[in-house]
## 1
Amino acid sequence: MKARVEYEKLMDSKVYTKACIRLKFPNENILQANFALMETIGDIYDFLKTHILLNPNEEFYLFTSPPLKKYLDPKAKVFNENLHPYTLMHVGYSNLGKPFCLNNSLFYYFKFFVRQKQIRDNRIH
């Protein structure tokens, strides 16, 4: 009987194929990216190091709050960490002595794109 209830619960649950993760940086910029559920936390770190950070050797960590939970295990799956369907993750910076350096041209491009879309939609005059 218990197995049947679990089966029915599983059949009624929604099936997600990706996780939409918003990454909030210390300078208040937010970047949204989609990750497959079987990708790892290490893949998110690699994405940030290769595409977003100017210095890929900078030490940083990912966390959610409340409650505060740091994601330090690079082998943990996005699905197993319940980061689906939508999650706001914060990017914490270990070295507070120097500024956190992002590839700002990427953010300027996105801001320009959003502004152009708002102009087309008559949201900005």
## 2
Amino acid sequence: MPDLPRNRQDHFVPQGYLRGFIDPARSNQDRPLWCLSRARNQWERKSTRQICSRRGFYDFATDPVNVEHPDVTFKSMENGFPALRDDLQRRNFVGWREHIAFLLAYMQMIRARSPQFFVDQCQALANAKMARVVAVNRTDQSLTHDGFRPLTDDEKHDFTIGCMREEIKKGAAWMEGFHWQIRTTFDPHSPVVTSEAPLFVKGDGPLASETMTMDVLTRKTSLVCFPLCWQACLVGRTRPFESDLESFEPGDLADFRGMMAEMAPDYVISPHVVKGLLLMGRPVPKSTRGVDSNAHCRRKKGTADVYRRRVASPIVPHAFDSYRPLGIISELY
């Protein structure tokens, strides 16, 4: 088989998806996204090339034989999503239901290719062992192997790539029993935001410490959320909605952004700086302490424009809510 591409900057969140969080008024800029950095707790301008990627993330550690490369697995959905999203934006998302099958399949792809999925799968393999067959006795149909041993990290990684491909190809049957609604906003300064872990479940109770199962996902209090672009978020639950399209209430949208900020591994991704949004548990940078809550400063830091804002009361989600990114769902294995 031809040599597989290696050591590239692999995007685990597609660039075509990330472009949906660019304000059209900023689309001609080199770094049109505003990203709230968890490490620095400050807003920074970024391009889609600079975020949501890891070098060689989908590279096989060993030499696979007759294995489909992840690029092929991703291709049809990566190519199809931007055009569909642009069409839905032009129609203000009216009639979106006719595309539900594609949207759910795309969400399944985002879940299965995510770092969270890889972490969950490698943890599930922590006690797994393997052995190499060295002889086959066809007379009594027995096998001789070289002894069981734990999987190496490379073997876990390659096995997880295979699981990822299988998950994507299985489709999104686990979501078909849910009812779905798109919630919208049309103000780029009060947008839907996203992160490197855009697909998540919101509920009550200690979700972070629970094994993710269909029982958890189908609770009456559970809500599956996936930001489609800065204008819209797709939400699903087992209870019917009154309509399949409605506007975000301002308070609900603020709560949504707060949840995304708490879960973001590295960045909250937005078309503009969002007033009052800070990564929870992170101190305000010293250089901005004491600054009036309505003031801001801009400065150059290396080659990046940085925007910092001091706020008296950062947006916080309700204390009784619980939420976590979706990786492995145990019954699907």
## 3
Amino acid sequence: MSLTSSDLELGADSGTDQLVGMRFNNMSVPPGASITGAYVEFEVDELSSEATSVTIQGQATDNAATFASATGNISTRTRTSAQVAWNNIPAWDTLNAKWQTPDMSSIIQEIVNRPGWLSGNSMVIIIGGTGRRTAEAYDGEAPAAPLLVITYMTGGAPTPTPTVTPTPTLTGSETPTPTGTPSTTFTPIQTGTATLVPTPVAEHRRQVFPPGSVRVSTDQPLGDLAVLLLEPAAPDSFFQWGFFHEVLSRTEYVEDYVMEPMAERMLAEDPDLAAQYLAKLEQDPDFRGDSEARLQWFYEKTPYFDERHLLYPVARELAGE
């Protein structure tokens, strides 16, 4: 079970068939709504033309739980009776092209018809099959992560839901290939596009800023405006309007086949690192059982690791420091 892969391989990874799970949060579909359309949209990450067919199902639960690294965390989830075949997927021969699944209305309908379904709950979509089509994942390129689009009706005109952008909730796949989970906002009666951004989390650190950095004082007539524009959690901040979304995309990452021999060399050349690694294996059973987490641990100790991934480039200066 992997939670940190940079792409999403539908069908198989390195010749091994796998299941891929995607968790979508805050699904504001009313209980019992009539689903008139639903699909997931993927963006091509790697070119491939081999014969590929997959089956799509949902998790048969009222409010899908987050993924965990335990073995079988996807395959042991009860799935919907409704399923959709996506057979003979055409060749993905253009990078960054968009591909949509066949209509998944029956799957979404089964979930929202459950007696415990509530607006705002989470859904999980599970895909498995043969062949290979490789799509972008949240950890690889957040703005290109899978999008779930649903159209529903509640006793009136059909309500198209917006195409959504992802929030940083992990999804998973058994054998490498998870992605981040998009969340979606539905606006009954109206049609529109909603862009959702991650919830910022503050951290306290000492930082030396490079030459050319600008200090914006709030002790000025427009100080409140400066706070509203620069504080990322403010509803009308630059961040909420998408001006800093490049920090959500990882610019550097490595594939497993590159990281594995590199990790072996690092262990052989650095006894202190080897001791740290053995200690973590001993103390952390989840780490010990997750090959992707182990490779990620080594990657974070290389000069290629992107330390500024998900780091907002504006700091708040604390008084007296």
